[in-house]
Amino acid sequence: MIWGLLLALFAAVPNANALRIEDTTVVIPIIGRFNGVPPSIWRTDLFIGNPYTQVATVTVKFYVAGGATQQRTFTIQPFGSLTLPDVVLNTFGLTTAAGELEITSPTSVEARARIFNAGSSVGEFGQAVPGIGKAQLRIESYVYGVSGLSGSRCNAGVANPNDTPISLQLEIRSGSGSTLYIQSGITLGAHQYLQYNDIFSTFGITPQDNVSVLFSTAENPIYGFASIVRNDSGDPIFLFGTGPNV
Fold first, then answer.
1. CATH architecture type of domain 137-246
2. In CATH terms, are 20-135 and 137-246 the same topology?
3. Quick one: which of 61, 68, 94, 227 is 20 to 30 A from 53 by CA?
4. How far apart are CA 6 and CA 54, in angstroms?
């Protein structure tokens, strides 16, 4: 009887707090294809899903850093999916490139990327990068629990998924909330990304655990992220930023 009542309650109450990442515009902050430690190569596989009952026509737009924007269109059947392996080379015909990726469709879709290193002496490894619907992004992007200890380093970055430039602030805080580094007036062009490798070394911060990274702007939504990387193997973990104060 109790279980029946609980099931009835769950069925009656909409799950308003569920994380929804699908949208008619989905943003992946960075994809790429570039050389790692020889002979390894970083590559990107792209996955797009259509979780609905209608056919989805999707346009994949690659904003190449320092190059011309590339665009391709695909059709995905209801409840179907599309996989584009080594997308920078096989879909866009580029041997070396990086940049923001945008997936648009008249109907909502989901997307994610896998950025991985192939050919390394320690084997293949990589990280999953979730696409997030542009409507779900905020003008603040908060990543917590990053570390520069225990054989790890932290890279942090942000993408501007808008058609106009924005001005950003970067703040790095300790676990106790004190400011370790702050920089304002960072200009980021339309559909461009910015990444800082090894933030502790780059900004002269004593390596420590439990650090948070906050990108913020007064203008349009952003996609901030961090990647915690093992120094011995290069194996990374991807973290996306949230907007709790917006």
1. Sandwich (2.60)
2. yes
3. 61
4. 33
pTM: 0.90
pLDDT per position as a tens digit, 83-101: 999 999 999 999 999 999 9
Picking from 215, 181, 185, 179, the residue whose alpha carbon sits closest to that of residue 199 is 181
Structure tokens at 51: 């979780």
pLDDT at position 75:
98
Q: Which residue ranges make up each domain of the chain?
A: 20-135, 137-246
* DSSP collapsed to 3 states, the chain: CHHHHHHHHHHHCCCCCCCCCCEEEEEEEEEEEEECCCCCEEEEEEEEECCCCCCEEEEEEEEECCCCCEEEEEEECCCCEEEECCHHHHCCCCCCEEEEEEEEEEEEEEEEEEEEEECCCCCCEEEEEECEEHHHCECEEEEEEECCCCCEEEEEEEECCCCCCEEEEEEEECCCCCEEEEEEEEEECCCCEEEECCHHHHCCCCCCCCEEEEEECCCCCEEEEEEEEECCCCCEEEEECECCCC
- Alpha-carbon torsion 70, 234, 240, 201, what sign? negative
We find that the CATH architecture of domain 20-135 is Sandwich (2.60)
Kindly tell me the burial class for residue 162, based on how many C-beta atoms sit within 10 Å of its own C-beta (0-12, 13-18, 19 or more).
Answer: buried
Residue 18's pLDDT is what? Answer: 63
